Amino acid sequence: MPLTATLARVDADLAAGRVPMARQRLRGLVSSYPDDLTLRRRLAEVYRLYGEPAEAGRWMYLEEDRDAAETSAFEARYRTPRERMRALAWSGPESLAPSEFAVEQLTAVRTACSESLGRPVDWDSTPSALDDEPGSAMRKFSGFLAGTGCLIALLAMVGIWLNGLIALFS
């Protein structure tokens, strides 16, 4: 559906009180047009209707006229540069940003994320690439071991149950 038609539906949803539907449509538009700050601003307005200052701050983060309390709420919810980078849902280089302030904000978040990971990242990095931090391989391995242990325990229980069932009918 074209951008203008979807925005018309957003307006109709808001007029009819269907705020969740408007939010869903705007989230889809922001994912399709991540460099459109107007869409991000509209999404922030919808989150204000929900009384969600952290999410309003998230979607206004690239705007110079953003609300300081909303920005603080966003930064408190998404504490690390990696979390903020994921939350901002930007795609492509910072140079696509339509304002100098947005370019500065995106550059600062990406740079901080690169420093915290100890290697360069970009806005098109996969979420798993952003998860690589010291100790993450060990956590993945210990999760694998825990899952394997649960599977072995389940198979042992099934074996015991089958052995009892066979003994019962013998």
Brief rundown of the structure:
The protein has 170 residues and is mainly α. 73% of the residues lie in helices and 0% in strands.
Mind explaining what this structure looks like?
By secondary structure, the protein is an all-alpha fold. It folds into 2 domains: 130 residues, Serine Threonine Protein Phosphatase 5, Tetratricopeptide repeat (Alpha Horseshoe), CATH 1.25.40; 37 residues. Helices cover 73% and strands 0% of the residues. It contains 9 helices and no strands. Helix 6 packs across helix 7. The chain is elongated and about 80 Å long. The model has no long low-confidence stretch (mean pLDDT 89). Keywords: Membrane, Transmembrane, Transmembrane helix. InterPro entries: DUF6584. It holds the Pfam family DUF6584.
Number of DSSP strands? 0
Rounded mean pLDDT is 89
CATH architecture of the largest domain: Alpha Horseshoe
Give the ordered list of helices and strands: HHHHHHHHH
Domain count, please report it. Answer: 2
- What is the strand content? under 5%
Low-confidence stretches: none
Please give the share of residues in helix. over 70%
The rough form would be described as elongated
* Radius of gyration using CA atoms only: 23 Å
CATH topology of the largest domain: Serine Threonine Protein Phosphatase 5, Tetratricopeptide repeat
CATH C-level class of the largest domain: Mainly Alpha
In this structure, how is the largest beta sheet organized?
none
Oligomer: single chain
Distance between the termini: 67 Å
| Number of H/I helices | 9
| SS content category | mainly alpha
